[in-house]
Amino acid sequence: MPLAIMIIFPIAVLLLTAYFVMDIALLNFPWSWESISVNKAGVCKLTQKNGRSFEVYIQQDSFVSSYLTILHVVPEAFRWFRFWQHRYVMLLEDNADAELFRKLKVYLLWHKNSVKHDSNFTTLED
What we know:
Number of domains: 2
Largest sheet: 6 strands, antiparallel
Structural class: alpha+beta
Shape: elongated
Distance between the termini: 63 Å
Number of strands: 6
Radius of gyration: 19 Å
Oligomer: single chain
Number of helices: 2
Low-confidence stretches: 118-126
């Protein structure tokens, strides 16, 4: 291998690793996620640190447990961010208000079961 590739490749990997750790794990950038909210109509809204909000749909393959929740979200409308058609948002029990986190988990479990329940009825009617 040429010496230039042996030097540039590890530097690029380190820079990309540092970027993703600061963006996704430490949430240090203005475009990092700050909050998630779900209203009574079931519309989920993700808000960034810079104040921009995106309405998203929570997919059925989201994972919900007592200590960890992984949301698979798809934006309602694609604008400039067409390059990401879906994202995964990890929510830990330690990083949120316990009562609000419990309410979100109950909503997600209820939402997942109600969609399965409705789809079973439509297949039985056909």
